[in-house]
Specification:
This protein has eleven helices and eleven strands. By secondary structure, the protein is an alpha/beta fold. Helix 3 crosses helix 11 and helix 5 runs parallel beside helix 6. The relative contact order is 0.18.
C-alpha cells in the first residue's frame, strides 16, 4: 500500500510540476539559451507521424457519414501562434534535413511523445525550460533548432503514468504555451498509434500535412494504413509515406540484405494512393550518432545516410507545396 501511495504521489507531483511551471510568472527571458533572439512570426509546423492506415476503401457515402460522425463535438482547430504550417513526421533528422536544404529557413521541433520522449536524448539537451513575461515556455535549442519536449519537465527515469485527460491537458500546454519565435516549419514528432495524443493534436491545431513512416514488414504496414486512414477521416492531408530501415548493407562485404522485407512501404503508398517520399536505410551510423545526441545530418553530413534524410526532407517540402497551392 505504501508503495502504491508513493507511486501515486510521484505521478501527481510530476503533473503538478508541469502545471506549476506553466502558470507561475518567471523572469523576463528574451533570448534562447544560446543567445539567439526570439522573433515572432513562425511559419510552418512539420510533424512526422509513425502510423499507417487500414487497407480497404469504403464507399463514398459511408466515408462521408464516418467523417460527419467523427466531427461531432470536436474542438475548433486553431493555428499555433506564429506558426504557418504543422506537419506530422519522424522528426529529428527531418528537421535538420529541412534546415540543410535551405539554411534561410527556421525549423522548430516539438516532441509529442508524452510517455516516451526521445528528443532530449537525440538532440543532446537537458534542463527545464524558462518562462517569459507571458508565462510561455522558452524552448531549449541545439544545432540551431528550438525544441520542446515532455522530457524537459520530468526526470530521465521517471515514467509518465497518466490517463487521457491529463495527457490531453499536457499536450494542450505544449502546443499553446511555448514561445517558438519566428519559424518556417514546426516539426512535430508523433508516437505510433491512433490514441489520445494523436487525436488531441489533430483536433486542436491546423496541420499542413502528415508523413507516414513505416518499415517494409507487413505488421508495421498494418499500423501505417490505420494512421493514414485516421488522418483522412480527420481531413488532414497525407503528404506521403517514408520507408524506414529499408535495407541493411554489411560493413564488411557490402552485401545488401532486406531484413524487414523489400519495398513494402512503397507498395502500400501505391495501394492507398499517397506519394512515396523515399527510403532511409538501416545503418549503424544512424544508431550510433542518435545515441550520442549527434544526429547524422549534422555529425556526418556527407554520408549516404544523411543524404537519404535530405532527399526525404526535399520530397516533404515539395509535397507540402503541392497541397497548399
Amino acid at each position: 500500500m505504501r508503495r502504491k501511495l508513493s507511486e501515486l504521489n510521484m505521478i501527481l507531483c510530476t503533473y503538478s510540476r508541469l502545471s506549476h511551471l506553466l502558470k507561475i510568472s518567471g523572469s523576463k527571458v528574451s533570448v534562447f539559451r544560446n543567445g539567439t533572439e526570439i522573433k515572432h512570426g513562425a511559419s510552418c509546423c512539420v510533424q512526422l507521424k509513425r502510423f499507417q492506415s487500414n487497407g480497404s476503401m469504403n464507399k463514398k457515402g459511408l466515408q462521408d457519414r464516418q467523417k460527419q460522425q467523427m466531427a461531432r463535438g470536436l474542438p475548433k482547430q486553431k493555428p499555433i501562434r506564429d506558426v504557418k504550417q504543422c506537419v506530422y513526421v519522424f522528426a529529428v533528422n527531418l528537421a535538420l534535413g529541412l534546415m540543410a536544404i535551405d539554411k534561410s529557413k527556421s525549423v522548430g521541433l516539438l516532441d509529442a511523445d508524452i510517455y516516451g520522449p526521445s528528443v532530449p536524448k537525440l538532440m543532446n539537451l537537458k534542463g527545464n525550460p524558462e518562462l517569459n513575461d507571458d508565462n510561455r515556455m522558452i524552448p531549449l535549442i541545439n544545432y540551431g533548432v528550438p525544441c520542446m519536449s515532455m522530457g524537459f519537465l520530468v526526470q530521465d527515469a521517471s515514467p509518465v503514468v497518466w490517463r487521457g485527460l491529463m495527457v490531453m491537458s499536457a499536450i494542450e500546454r505544449l502546443l499553446r504555451q511555448v514561445e517558438w519565435g519566428s519559424l518556417d516549419y514546426l516539426v512535430v514528432d508523433m508516437p505510433p498509434g491512433t490514441g489520445d495524443v494523436q487525436l488531441s493534436i489533430t483536433q486542436n491545431i491546423l496541420i499542413a500535412g502528415a508523413v507516414i513512416v513505416s518499415t517494409p514488414q507487413d505488421v508495421a504496414l498494418l499500423d501505417a494504413r490505420r494512421g493514414a486512414e485516421m488522418f483522412r477521416k480527420l481531413n488532414v492531408p497525407v503528404l506521403g509515406l517514408v520507408q524506414n530501415m529499408s535495407v541493411f548493407q554489411c560493413p564488411n562485404c557490402h552485401h545488401h540484405t532486406h531484413i524487414f522485407g523489400s519495398n513494402g512501404a512503397k507498395q502500400l503508398a501505391e495501394t492507398i494512393s499517397v506519394k512515396f517520399l523515399g527510403d532511409v536505410p538501416l545503418h549503424l551510423n544512424i544508431r550510433e550518432t542518435s545515441d550520442k545526441g549527434q544526429p547524422i545530418v549534422v555529425s556526418s553530413p556527407d554520408s549516404p545516410e544523411a543524404e537519404a534524410y535530405r532527399k526525404v526532407a526535399s520530397a516533404v517540402i515539395q509535397s507540402l507545396e503541392e497541397h497548399t497551392r
